[in-house]
Write a structure and sequence with these properties.
The chain is an alpha+beta fold. Strand 1 and strand 2 form a beta hairpin. The longest helix has 18 residues.
Length: about 240
């Protein structure tokens, strides 16, 4: 069984299920944000060790405090999310102006349902400032006039974190997460809730596979992010 879920600050929704099972309920005991944070932490620590980076501290990104803040506030005012308040109890907020997570799971007969891939995106008020990285890098100035006009008022949807279990990387679970995000971004734009622009930051020298994944899925870019980590670049896609 393969399932795809959408997490927002106040809901967990089953988006698709490749079986005809009558039970379409979400097992919130297993399919929840704390378990997804744990999945991401183990995944990233394992990957960093394979890359020879040792026991890199992943707690700066794989922690409940930061995830819950971005799920509700995006890159907006973090004071919107008090540590003592459950984001499920906060006023409803459109996902295009907050955060959204897509997560794929699998379940073999007599096994527990488990996460295999995830993608965490959230709203940013604009695109990062960049500087040329090479003559071949594409810049955000190549956006259509329509998109350039919409970004100042609608911002962009920024993919912050994503990852896939190495065992399942040839099964396109990450691609399914991205495809669903694209569908939602397209719908948000059509309803006047977004610019239709997705952005990603990555470091090609450290994550060449991510660059290949982005280019394969229609992203453009490659310019250095001003003020970012050494070698961090911007990729973007207009849908």
């Amino acid at each position: 069984m393969t399932r795809l879920y959408r997490f927002t600050h106040n809901n967990v929704e089953l988006v698709s299920d490749d079986t005809d099972a009558a039970n379409q309920e979400v097992n919130t005991g297993a399919i929840n944000i704390p378990n997804l944070v744990m999945f991401s932490a183990v995944l990233f620590m394992t990957e960093f060790r394979k890359m020879g980076m040792g026991d890199t501290d992943v707690s700066k990104t794989c922690n409940m405090s930061d995830w819950r803040r971005r799920m509700y506030a995006g890159t907006g005012n973090s004071q919107e999310v008090d540590e003592d308040i459950d984001i499920m109890d906060l006023p409803a907020k459109h996902s295009s102006q907050a955060g959204v997570i897509y997560a794929a799971t699998t379940q073999e007969p007599e096994d527990k349902e488990s996460f295999t891939a995830f993608l965490f995106a959230y709203h940013k008020p604009g695109m990062s400032k960049t500087m040329p990285a090479s003559r071949t890098a594409q810049t955000a100035s190549e956006l259509t006039r329509e998109a350039q006009a919409l970004v100042p008022s609608s911002g962009v949807t920024h993919i912050w974190l994503c990852g896939s279990d190495p065992v399942h990387r040839r099964n396109r679970y990450m691609s399914k997460c991205l495809e669903q995000l694209e569908q939602d971004v397209r719908a948000w734009k059509a309803s006047g809730q977004g610019s239709g622009i997705m952005t990603v930051h990555t470091i090609p020298a450290a994550f060449p596979g991510m660059v290949q994944f982005l280019l394969k899925n229609g992203f453009q870019g490659g310019d250095l992010v001003v003020g970012g980590e050494s070698g961090k670049v911007l990729y973007w896609k207009e849908v």
